[in-house]
Design a protein that fits this description.
Blueprint (H helix, E strand, L loop, with lengths): L6 H13 L5 H11 L11 E3 L26 H4 L6 H7 L4 E3 L10 H10 L2 E3 L5 H5 L13 H16 L33 H23 L6
Parallel strand pairs: 1-2, 2-3
Helix pairs in contact: 7-8
Length: 225
């Protein structure tokens, strides 16, 4: 974990420097370094986007895929140790993070997160486009870009299907969560071409974030994400 120097420590340092010029600096610096350790530099993220679509030709048969969530148990023969061990290969390549796009909150992601954690990989999942543009009825587009309910309901399921441990803490493999991928391209698709549309995009993002926070609150989620 990274330690950020609290403002109180900086205040103490400035105060001692101002009112105690006759004191030897070395003892105080040692004392303050004990209270306020130097912030450690976070490791550089070296990530691989993981989407092993099993197609031999570009675009061929993509519509036959039931889903694009590769964290599920059905995909374990590809990323698991007893199968192709994709996660192990990703780690051997020198990456420390895996980014995923598809996310079916009705499916368990526990095994994938456990496997990634065992390999020393962090995981960056994202909420899929389904609640935003594809869910019928009830997508965010149909609710005039108010995404609170869709985000809350989707993320609540994620928290129940592997994102939280039995102690309601975030799984240690989780690093970040992408709430909306490329919102300027779809929330709405005219965000960059029509007047007034950026406001609708902002409404979608803010309401989705509120729903995300509500899901955490309802689940009593603890720990860092």
């Amino acid at each position: 974990s990274n330690f950020v120097m609290p403002r109180s420590c900086k205040t103490v340092h400035v105060t001692f420097a101002a009112i105690s010029p006759w004191l030897s600096w070395l003892p105080w610096l040692c004392f303050l370094s004990f209270l306020c350790p130097v912030a450690s530099k976070p490791p550089t993220m070296k990530a691989v986007s993981y989407g092993p679509v099993p197609l031999k030709e570009p675009g061929a048969g993509a519509g036959l895929l039931a889903q694009d969530d590769w964290m599920v148990e059905a995909a374990k023969p590809m990323w698991g140790l007893r199968g192709r061990d994709d996660l192990g290969i990703v780690r051997q390549l020198g990456a420390n993070t895996v980014r995923l796009y598809g996310n079916n909150p009705n499916e368990s992601h526990t095994s994938f997160l456990d496997e990634a954690h065992e390999k020393g990989l962090k995981v960056v999942p994202g909420m899929s486009d389904f609640p935003y543009t594809q869910m019928l009825p009830g997508s965010c587009i149909e609710t005039d870009f108010d995404c609170f309910n869709q985000s809350r309901d989707s993320y609540t399921l994620n928290l129940q299907t592997g994102f939280l441990t039995e102690f309601q803490e975030y799984h240690p493999a989780l690093s970040y969560f992408i709430l909306i991928n490329e919102p300027d391209l779809k929330m709405p698709s005219t965000t960059t071409t029509e007047q007034g549309q950026p406001q609708r995009m902002a409404k979608a993002i803010v309401s989705a974030f509120d729903g995300f926070l509500e899901a955490e609150k309802l689940a009593n989620a603890t720990g860092d994400l």
